Amino acid sequence: MLTILEPTPESLRKAAEALRAGELVGMPTETVYGLAGNAFDPAVLARIFEIKKRPFFDPLIVHVAEFTEVEALVRDVPADARLLMERFWPGPITLVLPKTDRVPDLATAGLDTVAVRMPAHPVARALLRATGLPLAAPSANPFGCLSPTTALHVAEAFSEGIALVLDGGPCRIGVESTVVGWENGEPVMLRPGGISLELLEETLGKNVAVAANGGEASEGKATASPGNLPWHYAPRTPLRLLTSVANDIPSPGKPGGGSSGLIWFGAEPAPEGFVLVENLSATADLAEAAEKLFAALHRLDAAGLDALVAVMVPEQGLGRAINERLRKAAAAPVDHRDQRNRLK
Ligand code: TXA
Ligand code: MG
After folding, report:
1. The whole model's pTM is what?
2. Closest residue by CA, ligand 1 atom 22
C-alpha cells in the first residue's frame, strides 16, 4: 500500500523534496487526484506514462501555482486565453497553448502546444509552491480506468512507483478540468469538465466549438485532443447507459439472472431490484452529481456485481462532463472488463 500523508508543513516538505529528486507524488486537486512529477524532466515524464500504462501519444497537463510560471511554458497567450485565466484560475480549466522549447516533447506527445492549468486546491498550491517547479500531472489512475477522487482511490490503484500521496480529502469538483484549445484563432472545448460550456461562452462573449468526442487517436497521428479516445473512465464491471428513464425503465434482471448496481439521479424513487443504488443527487443538482460520480462508480465497481446501469443526466452545465464520462465508461471493450477477474 502506498503511503498516504495528511498535509502538514512536514509532509509537504517531504513531498516537495521527493518531487525535486525526480520521484512521483499523488497530489489532490479540486477536480481529481493527479500523479505529479517534474514537468521539465523527461525521465520523470517517462515514468508517469509507464506507471499509468498510458500511451505516449496522449499528452500531459502541466500545473503551475503562479501566473509568472506560464512564461517559461507558453510562447503566446491569446486574448481569449487571458480572459479565461483571469476569470477561472486558479480553477478547473486547462488551456492548450503554443509551447516553449523548455517543455519536453514527452509532456506534449510531440505537439507544439502544451496544456497548462493552475489548480485551486490549497494542498496542490502549497505543494507547487514548495517544489518550485511546474508539475506534470495526469489523473492518478491506470490508463482507461475510473478517475481518483480520494487519496485511497490512488493508493488502491497503484501499489508502487509513487513516493507518497497527500490526502487533500474528497475532490470538490469531482470531474477533470475543462480543456480548451484554439483552432485558427477560435476557441474549441476539447474536453468537457469542471467549467461549463455555458460559462466559457458567457466569459468569451462568443460561441465555443465543441471537439468531436471520441476522436480517433493512434500512434504517430495525434488529433486535436489526443486524449479523446473512444472509451475511458471505465469500471471493470460492464456498464450500460439509459438515455431516457421514461422510455427505458431499467430492469436489473438479465435473462440469466445476475446482480446489478444502479447510478441514479434526481428525486424520483429509483426502480427496484438493484442490489446497490447510488443516487448522484436527490435534488438533481449537477454540481453535486459531478462531485459524487467517480466515488459512486468506485463503490459499485468494488461490490462484485455482474452489471451496472447508469441514467444519464441533463446535457447542460456540468451534465455535459458527467455524461461524457458515462458514455466513455460504457464504451469500454470486453478485455478491459476481463481484467477484473485477474485483479480479484
Ligand atoms: O482536472 C484535470 O485536468 C486533472 C488534474 C489532475 O489536474 N488532470 C487530468 O489529466 O485530467 P489527464 O492527463 O487525465 O488528461 C489530460 C487531457 C487529455 O485529454 C489530453 O489529451 C489533453 O488533456 N491534452 C493535454 N495536452 C494537450 C495538447 N497539447 N493538445 C490537446 N490536448 C491535450
Ligand atoms: Mg485522465
Report:
1. 0.93
2. 227
Is the CB of 191 inside a 6 Å radius of any atom of ligand 1? yes
Domains of the chain: 4-215 (3.90.870.10), 239-343 (3.40.50.11030)
- Pull the grid cell for residue 152: 485511497
Which atom of ligand 1 sits closest to the CA of residue 177? 1
Angle at 227 between CA 226 and CA 230, to 5 degrees: 100
Q: Is 238 in the pocket of ligand 1 (CB under 6 A)?
A: no
Q: Which ligand is nearest to the CA of 233?
A: 2
Which residue is associated with the grid cell 498516504? 4
For residue 266 and ligand 1, the question of a CB distance below 6 A is answered with no
- Could you read off the pLDDT of 161-190 as tens digits, one per residue? 999 999 999 999 999 999 999 999 999 999
Per the listing, cell 509552491 goes with 129
State which amino acid sits at residue 210. Answer: V
Pick from 254, 271, 270, 265: which is nearest to 307 by CA?
254
Between 224-228, 272-276, 307-311, the lowest mean confidence (pLDDT) is in: 224-228
User: How many residues are listed for the chain in this entry?
Assistant: 344
The C-alpha cell that represents 222 in the structure block: 495525434
